[in-house]
Amino acid sequence: MAKGAKLPGSQPQYKPRRKESRTLKRKREEEELETLQKSALEFDASTLSQFSDLPLSRATAAGLDKSHFKVPTDIQRKAIPLALKGRDILGAAKTGSGKTLAFLIPVLEVLYRHKWTPEDGLGALIISPTRELAIQIFEVLRKIGQRHSFSAGLVIGGKNLQDERERLGRMNILVCTPGRMKQHLEQNPDLDTYNLQILVLDEADRILDMGFKDAIDAIVQGIPKDRQTLLFSATQTKNVNDLARLSLKDPEYVAVHESATSATPGKLQQHYIITPLPEKLDILWSFIRANVKSKILVFFSSTKQVRFVYETFRQMQPGIPLLHLHGKQKQTARLEITANFSNSKNSCLFATDVVARGLDFPAVDWVIQVDCPEDVDTYIHRVGRTARYERDGRAVLFLCPTEEKGMLARLQGKKVPIEKINVKQNKKQSVQNQLQGICFKDPEIKYLGQKAFTSYSRSVYIRKDREIFDLEKLPLQEFATSLGLPGAPRIKFLKGDDVKQRKNAPRGLLKDDDSSDGDESVEEEMKKEKKKEVRTKYDRMFERQNQNIFTEHYTEMIRHGEEEDEKDEDFLAVKGHGYGSDAEDGDDKAPGLKYIQVHGKDAMLVDSKRREKLATSKKAMLKYKGKGTKLVFDEEGEAHAIYEFEDEEEFKKAGDAEEQRGKFLAEEAKRVTVADEEDKSLAKEKKRAKKERQKARLLEDMEGEDDGDGDGFDGGVPLVPYVDYGRDDESEDEAPGLVEEDRPIKKQKKWFEDDEEEERKKAKKAKKKGKVVEMQEAPETLDDLEALAAGLLA
Ligand code: ADP
Ligand code: MG
C-alpha cells in the first residue's frame, strides 16, 4: 500500500465523529449554562461561606482564585447571590468593605450566561465619578475576568473621539466616567447601548447628585429599561427621585452595616483637633515632621491650596517624599502620582476631594483633613481611604473654633465616633517665617499663596451649611499672614443672582477653584501678564494677521504686467465662463481686472496664469458656483422656492413679527430634531442588523472549531483592555499599570496591537510555512533584486 494512503472508508468515519463531538460539546455547554442559571435562582445565601460555594462560571471562579479571593466579605455575601438572581440592588456598606467585587462578579456572570460575544456589543456599563476610580475598577475587572473572553474598555476622557469610535463599538464591558460616556453616546454612532444587560453605578449617591445629572440622564435615556441595575456606595442614596431616574425595578436594599454603631470602619481611630485658621499650616507641618515614617493622605478644599502647600513644604524639606494630586493636573501625571502613592511605604500626598471616593491606596496610616469637609458624607469617604479591608488606620480632622459645634453635631447625627485630642504645644513649630521668606523670594509662589487664600475663602463662602461655615467669623487677615503673604488679598465676592446660583449649585459644578483661574497654570498667567507689559515691535509684527507681503502698488504692477501678456495669449483664454473684464459691473471689484463669473455670487479674480488654469477645473470652480437653490414642486408641477414670501398684509394679520419668527424657528428646530433622530435610529438599525449578521456568521464558523488547547476555555477574545483615558499627548503605552504583560490565556488576541507587531507576526507565520525570504535591507541594486527573486523561487 502506498505510503500515506488511507484505509477505504476511514475519512467518512472520522468526520461524523468529530462533528458529533462538537455537537456534544455545545450541548454540554448549553446544559452547563442552564444548570448555572437554575442554581443561581435556587441558591440559598445562608449556605455561603467561600466564593467556591457560589454558582459561578468556571472562568470567574478561576479568576477569583488566581487573584487570591477566597472568602467573601459581608456585602459580597449578601449582594452577589441576589444579583445573580437578576435583582436590582441598592448596596450600602462601609468604605473598604469590598463593594467592587460585589458588582464585578455579577457583571461577568450576567454576560457569561447570555453567551456574550464581541458582536453582541456593549453588555455592561460601569460608571464611576472619577477617572482614578474607574481605572481601579478596571484593574480589578481585568484580574478577576482574566479567564473570560469579553472585551473591556476604559472610557474616562481624553482627546480625539474619532480614533476610538470603532474600537468602542466592539467593547462588551465599559468602565467610564459620566461626562466622557455622554460625549461618546452623542457623537459616536458605533457605540450602541441598545443591548445593555447590566448597569452599575459605583459611588452611586455621588453620581446621582446634581453635578452629573445631565450626563446620567443622557446615558440612561439610551439604554433598555429592562436591564439589571446595581447601585453601590458607602453613603447610599434612598432618595426616591434619584431612584426613579434610573427606573429601578423593585430594588433590594442591601445594607450590611446599617445596624452597626458607627458609619465608619471599626478599626479606624478618629480624632479632631481645634486649631485657629492661621495655625493650620504650623500644625500640619509639625505633624508631618513627627511622622516621616508613615503614609499620610492630606485633604484640602481647593486645588490652589494643594499646590501652594506642596510647593512651599517641598522647599522646606520635611524629610518625607511629598506628592500632590488634584483635578487640574494632566492625566498622565495623575496616573503616575496615584501609582507612586500606592506603591510607596512612606510618603505624604496632598490632595483635593478627587481622591476622596473609592480609591484603594494600600496601607495608608493617616488621613488628615486640614479643611473641614463640606458634609458628613464627604468626611466618611475621605477617612475611608484608610482602615480598609480589616486593616487599621487613623484620621485627624482640623476644625476651626467656629466650625466645632456645628460639625460635631453633624458627625454625631450620622454615627461617626470621633474624639478630641490636643496638640502638644512644645511639639508645635511655626512655619510662618519660612513661608514669608519663600513668598518674598519667589513671586510665583506668592501669587499661588494669594490664589490659595482666595480659593479657601471662596470654598467657605459657597458652602451651604451656615452653622459650620461662616466666612465673616474667620480671622482672614491673620490667615493671609500665616501663608507668608504681606496682606490679605482682596476677595472678589460674587454679586446679585450669581451668589444665589452659586449657593444652590451642586458641588460638581462648583469648581474647587477660582472660576476666573480657568485651567491655566500660574506660570502661564504670569507669562501673560508679563507679555502685556513688554511687547516688542517683533511681537506686534507677528501678531498682525491677514497681511500681504507685497505692497498694494506692487500687486497692481504684477497684475498689469500679466494683463499685457494675456492680451497676446487670448487664444488660450478659458472659454464658457462669462470671462472678461468686469470693471464696469459696478460692484466692489477692482477696475481693470479679470474676473470669472460663475453662476453663484462670488466671482473669481483671474490675476495669474495659475488661476486661469484653475478656471478649467470643474472641481475648483464649484467653490464659485455658490449653493443651488432647492425647489419644491406643487401638484401642478410648478416649481417653488422652499420658503416663499407671503403677502405682507396677511403676514401682519398673523400677529407680531417677532412672535411669528420665534414660532417658526421653534417648529423648524423640532423638524430638524425629528429628522436627526430618524437618521440616527436608521443608522443604528443598520449597524444592529450588520452585527446580527456578523454574529450569525461567527456562530456558523464556531460550529467547526474547538480551540483544543485543553484549558477548558474556548478561545476568542480574552478580557482585553481598551483605554481611553485623558491623555494629553503621550502615547498610550506610557500609561502605567494598564498594559498587562503576560496574560494567562493561551489563545489570545490583542485588539490593538500596532502594525509593526502584526507585520512581525505575519512574517513569523509565513516563515513557518517557508514562504518568507528575509533580507537585511530593502533591495537597492539589481544584484539585491536577483538574490531576492532567487530566494523566492527556491
Ligand atoms: P469598597 O468599594 O467597599 O470601598 P473595595 O472593593 O475597594 O472596597 O475593597 C477594599 C479592599 O478589600 C481591596 O483592597 C480589595 O482587594 C479587598 N477585598 C475585597 N474583597 C475581598 C475579599 N473577599 N477577600 C479579600 N480581600 C478583599
Ligand atoms: Mg468602592
Strand order of the largest sheet: 7-1-6-5-2-4-3-20
Largest sheet: 8 strands, parallel
The CATH level-2 architecture of one domain is identified as 3-Layer(aba) Sandwich
Q: What is the molecular shape?
A: globular
Q: What number is the mean pLDDT?
A: 78
Q: Any overview of this molecule?
A:
GO terms for molecular function: ATP binding; ATP hydrolysis activity; identical protein binding; RNA binding; RNA helicase activity. This protein is of the alpha/beta class. Helix content is about 45%, strand content about 10%. Among the domains are: about 30-255, P-loop containing nucleotide triphosphate hydrolases (Rossmann fold), CATH 3.40.50.300; about 270-480, 3-Layer(aba) Sandwich (Rossmann fold). The strands form 4 sheets. An 8-stranded parallel β-sheet has the order 7-1-6-5-2-4-3-20, with helices on both faces. The chain has a 7-stranded parallel β-sheet with strand order 10-11-9-12-13-8-14, sandwiched between helices. A hairpin with a 5-residue loop joins strand 18 and strand 19. Helix 4 packs across helix 5 and helix 7 (about 180-185) crosses helix 9 (about 215-220). The protein is globular, with a radius of gyration of 35 Å. The protein starts with 9 loop residues before the first helix and ends with a helix.
What would the keywords be for this entry?
794 residues, 28 helices, alpha/beta, 7-stranded parallel beta sheet, 11% strand, Rossmann fold, 8-stranded parallel beta sheet, binds adenosine-5'-diphosphate, RNA binding, binds magnesium ion, 44% helix
